[in-house]
Amino acid sequence: MGCKNFFRTRPVMEEECLWGEGHRKAVESVLSAVLRGNTAVLLGPRRVGKTSVVSVMAEKLRRKRGHHYVYFNFSRFMGSRAISIADIEPKRTSLKMITASKSYTISFRGLSVEVRKTSIEEFSRDFSTLIRVLSQNARLGVLIFDEAQVLARLKNLDFRGLLQEITDSYPNISLVFTGSMPGMLVEYLNPSSESPNFMRSAEIFTLPRWSVEEGREYLIDGLNSYGIKTSNELELSRAVEELGGVPGFISYYGLTVVNLVRNGKISEEALPIALEESRKYALSEWKKDIEAFLNVYNSGVYTGVLRVLAEAYPAALRGAEIYRKLKPLGLAPTRVQHIYKYLETLEKAGFVRSSGKRYWIEDPLLREVVGAAPTP
Predict the structure, then answer these.
(1) Nearest to 21 by CA among 247, 198, 174
(2) Do the Cβ atoms of 346 and 306 come closer than 8 Å?
(3) Tell me, what's the pLDDT at 371?
(4) In what order do the strands lie in the sheet with 353-355?
(5) Nearest to 351 by CA among 369, 376, 337, 333
């Protein structure tokens, strides 16, 4: 059965609508990991499709008898300096769920467990009870934590203690984490290699962006599904390149083309207009991501480092070179060695890449947001 709704701004739930070899492979890889009882970690930049992958995986899991999932989404807290236990509430589950302002209840097989959020002690005790009851009444239970690096900013509770309890005591409960700030998530989940925890059996996967060929074929098939034909494959390829191969932005572009054609534009006119609108949308989203990051890591040095790297592209710079360029801007840290701490944080956040102690910004729109002229 083909996909009936190719272009969308929400995560994909149906397997037939999941596009890209890397994305389909990731579904099977994550599913296989949890069926083996291992922790699965899915990394990748924002809007690359991590939520779609774990959502499709969860629906495949649900169709297996006695298999259940509970899905937590922390993406709306990306720019928050702190979150509370009140924010730890399932957004979706294969079980029956009732929510209230200070608690949520999950029911299955005639049993109900209320997780109260009025105190740390109550929450921890109730959450442990929920896991125990789930383990006793399911062949396999899977807890999915989307954008899980946010849990590092949970006030007054180290959630890793509850996660450790799950892996130590319940072999039929598996954990899935996603993160768009890869280094920060891995560091939170496994802060010390000398002290193995629930990450000792983790399987880590990285979700790729679409290649130009994948993105172009997605747009061609998607437009065809709406009855829109275009022979300008070069323009479609250009759109995929300029949007950085990010599935969320490419889907937005396809939907914009559809709406323009429905409003009277011919497809050849619609394509460049849609690209300009989609670029503006993508730039605004990258700007929000930078602002969210700076809300947590409040220092002008980060802004300066990003601007220097963006302006230097396609050259990759060493830390000392970045430091020298920051000095006339008045943004250099006290010592040149300190610049590497800022670079490390930016790399963990997924904004910067490095190789051989040289650093650069890969995404073309991110470079534009932080002050570079568009790359020719």
Answers:
(1) 247
(2) yes
(3) 80
(4) 317-318, 358-360, 353-355
(5) 369
Q: Which residue has the tokens 């990285």?
A: 206
**What is the pLDDT at residue 190?**
84
Q: How many residues does the chain have?
A: 376
pLDDT at 1: 56
Burial of 355 (0-12, 13-18, 19+ CB in 10 A): exposed
Structure tokens at 288: 């929000």
Q: How far apart are CA 15 and CA 57, in angstroms?
A: 8
* Mean pLDDT per 10-residue interval, the chain, length 376 residues: 82 92 96 95 94 97 95 94 94 94 90 95 97 95 97 94 93 96 90 66 92 96 92 94 96 97 94 97 95 91 96 95 94 92 95 95 94 47
User: What is the pLDDT at residue 376?
Assistant: 35
Three-state SS across the chain?
CCCCCCCCCCCCCCHHHCCCHHHHHHHHHHHHHHHCCCCEEEECCCCCCHHHHHHHHHHHHHCCCCEEEEEEECHHHCCCCCECHHHCCCCEECCEEEEECCEEEEEECCEEEEEECCCHHHHHHHHHHHHHHHHHHCCEEEEEEECHHHHHHECCCCCHHHHHHHHHHCCCEEEEEEECCHHHHHHHHCCCCCCCCHHHHCEEEECCCCCHHHHHHHHHHHHHHCCCCCCCHHHHHHHHHHCCCCHHHHHHHHHHHHHHHHCCCCHHHHHHHHHHHHHHHHHHHHHHHHHHHHHHCCCHHHHHHHHHHHHHCCCCEEHHHHHHHHHHHCCCCCCHHHHHHHHHHHHHCCCCEEECCEEECCCHHHHHHCCCCCCC
57: its two tokens: 């995986």
Distance CA 221, CA 6 (A): 8
Q: Terminus-to-terminus CA distance in the chain, angstroms?
A: 41
Which pair of structure tokens corresponds to residue 31? 């599913």
Show Cβ contacts of residue 156 under 8 Å, excluding neighbours closer than 6 positions.
Answer: 84, 85, 120
- Dihedral over alpha carbons 26, 28, 30, 34 (to 10 degrees): 180
For helices 339-348 and 300-312, give the axis angle rounded to 10 degrees.
80
